[in-house]
Amino acid sequence: MGTMSFFVRPAGDGDRYEFGGATFTVKADGGDTEGRVGVMEQSGPPGLTVPPHTHEGEDEMFYVLAGELSGFCGDERFTVSAGSFLFLPRDVEHGFEVVGDEPARALTIVGPARFDALVRSQGRPLTS
User: Fold this and answer.
1) How far, in whole angstroms, is CA 12 from its chain's centroid?
2) Which Pfam families does the record associate with it (predicted)?
3) CA torsion through residues 24, 29, 35, 38, sign
4) Do the beta carbons of residue 126 and residue 17 sit within 8 Å?
5) SS3 of 117, please?
6) Which 3 state secondary structure label does DSSP give 75?
7) What structural domains does the chain harbor?
8) Can you tell me whether residue 48 is helix, strand or coil?
9) Which of 11, 58, 104, 107 makes the best surface tag, with the fewest CB within 10 Å?
10) How confident is the model at residue 3 (pLDDT cuts 50, 70, 90)?
11) CA nearest 49: which of 26, 27, 69?
């Protein structure tokens, strides 16, 4: 493995992809962190539904920046808004939707870094 290097990605910087109806801006991927963590800014329109799914061997976290999300993780239900932090443990089914009439934005953190590679490989690249 190589040596990790310091970097700054200013506001708005990072490769952007449309994936599952949401827009992802990659802030750090597995290549930046020796596979430990991936960080993306995720934005979804009102009414966006992310169907039930499971991340095998990968934890997912959201720090909600704007809007409101409602969903489930295992047997638990949640509704979260700006300033909330959500931890979705690996191997547990979860899903959510953007509720209310404004878009939702969240910093999406995954570890080890796997979902970021899925977004890159299956997402549609966006140009500004």
Assistant:
1) 16
2) Cupin_2
3) negative
4) yes
5) helix
6) coil
7) 23-126 (2.60.120.10)
8) coil
9) 11
10) confident
11) 69
